[in-house]
Write a structure and sequence with these properties.
It is built from three helices and no strands. It has helices at about 5-45, 45-50, 55-80. The protein has one domain (about 1-89). The protein has about 90 residues and is mostly helical. The chain is rod-shaped, with a radius of gyration of 19 Å.
């Protein structure tokens, strides 16, 4: 949805860019924490876990993919409704 006020549009788009950075930061934090947890688990149980290491890789890939899709949907939702709900006012 577009508005006729260029100044308002500019303000909203700059705030959207800030929210995009927050969403990317949230995703990076989630992936970093999950990576650390998986690293700790694998380092402690390597003798047992080395036989099915590929399952850990698939699991981590699925988690990161689902989180990335969720973060992208949050951003798209904010972008789609930012003028309707006067999100940044």
């Amino acid at each position: 949805m577009e508005t006729n006020n260029r100044e308002l549009e500019s303000k909203y788009h700059s705030k959207l860019n800030g929210d995009t950075l927050l969403v990317i930061g949230m995703l990076a934090l989630l992936v970093g924490v999950e990576g650390f947890i998986i690293y700790r688990i694998l380092s402690e149980t390597w003798e047992i876990a080395s036989g099915f290491f590929y399952l850990y890789v698939i699991f981590i890939g699925l988690i990161v993919s689902i989180e990335a899709i969720g973060c992208l949907r949050v951003r798209e939702s904010i972008k789609a409704h930012m003028f309707e709900f006067k999100y940044y006012d």
